[in-house]
Amino acid sequence: MRVVVLSGGVGGARFVQGVVGAVPADDVTVVGNVGDDVEVLGLHVSPDLDSILYALAGLNDEERGWGRAGETWRVLETVAALNGETWFRLGDLDLGVHLVRTQALRAGEPLSRVIARIADELGVGTRLLPATDDRLRTWIGTGAGEFPFQEWFVSRGHRDEVDALRFEGAETAAPAPGVLEALAQADLLLLAPSNPYVSIAPILAVGEIRAAVAARTVPCVAVSPLIAGRAVKGPADRMLARLAGGTSPAHVARCYEGLIDALVVDEADAGDLDGLGDVRPIVARTLMVDGDARRRLAEAALGAVPA
Ligand code: FO1
Questions:
Q1: What's the CA gap between 37 and 48, in Å, rounded?
Q2: Separation of 41 CA from ligand 1 center, angstroms?
Q3: Ligand 1 atom 1: the closest Cα is on which residue?
């Protein structure tokens, strides 16, 4: 069964691990968010793509959720001693990837090719594609002003309530090579349990990707990132409450109106399924504590396609 997963970073990466545990790795294509990408210390950082790469390569730091296990911070210490930019913490192991990526991008290589090369070197057998090779950046509109995503998320600790989102560059962004082909050939589309507003929406902001998902002839299943109306980590619940008017499964489903056929919800939300309309609920345990839990969650979503 060929599967395409649209995914953000940390939670999405854990879900992708589960999908790869449930179907052969080379049947899976992951389309990752680049709206979080940021230039730090002159380097191009792709946090969500890297979280997925590190998770699939078994190099990720489970506890922190982002970056590499066994990370050290010697370079950052030097940067700090020199009064350089340290608000976005780049570890020594992580920096190697940013150096290689930035050099390749400056030499004119598209991001999709650089990511494919890095994935190959890390022994990742799953195809990981950025949503687009074009510049697409998420901006967060708040009462305190509009901020680039990472400035709001990391530097301001996502404390400001979000009033609006803007995906700079999305109007003209083209899907990265392979994205539309993968969507056309898939037997199942999955939306990972990532933040609908800042992880999945920037992918769907690429017009041709959204149109391909809307025109699908195969099931599309989203996995809710909320458990009992709360985010496991991060601002998804606050954003849903403010922007969608609530945190029930129906509010999550409404973020994907016309795009999904089923929504995987946690057992804790099984009593709160009103208002889903045509969207079929699939009740499962969605907390991805370990490899088994991730695979079981993936299997629940994959079950939307009859074997
Ligand atoms: N998140 C933080 O909260 N603080 C950081 O300093 C930070 C650095 C960082 C470096 C590389 C990377 O790939 C991710 C990093 N993240 C950091 C996580 C990142 O901001 C978020 O995981 C995503 O952008 C949200 O999906």
A1: 8
A2: 15
A3: 154
- Both tokens of residue 200? 């999945």
Instruction: Give the whole-angstrom CA distance, residue 276 versus residue 250.
Output: 5
Q: Using CA positions, which residue lies closest to atom 4 of ligand 1? A: 154
* Structure token pair of residue 53: 């790469």
Of 251, 260, 112, give the one whose Cα is nearest residue 188: 260
pTM of the entire predicted model: 0.97
Ligand 1 centroid–CA 23 distance in Å is 29
Q: Which residues fall within 8 angstroms of residue 274, CB to CB, at 6 or more apart?
A: 248, 250
Q: Which residue ranges form the domains of the chain, and what is each CATH number?
A: 3-38+125-140+170-302 (3.40.50.10680)
165 CA to centre of ligand 1 in angstroms: 19
Query: How much distance in Å is there from the Cα of 152 to the middle of ligand 1?
Result: 11
Beta bridge partners of 137: 168
Q: Which atom of ligand 1 is nearest to the CA of 194?
A: 26
Q: What is the mean pLDDT of each run of 10 residues along the chain (307 residues)?
A: 96 96 96 98 98 97 95 98 98 98 98 98 97 98 98 97 98 98 98 98 98 98 98 96 97 98 98 96 96 97 81
Phi, psi of 13 (to 5 degrees): -60, -40
| pLDDT for residue 217 | 97
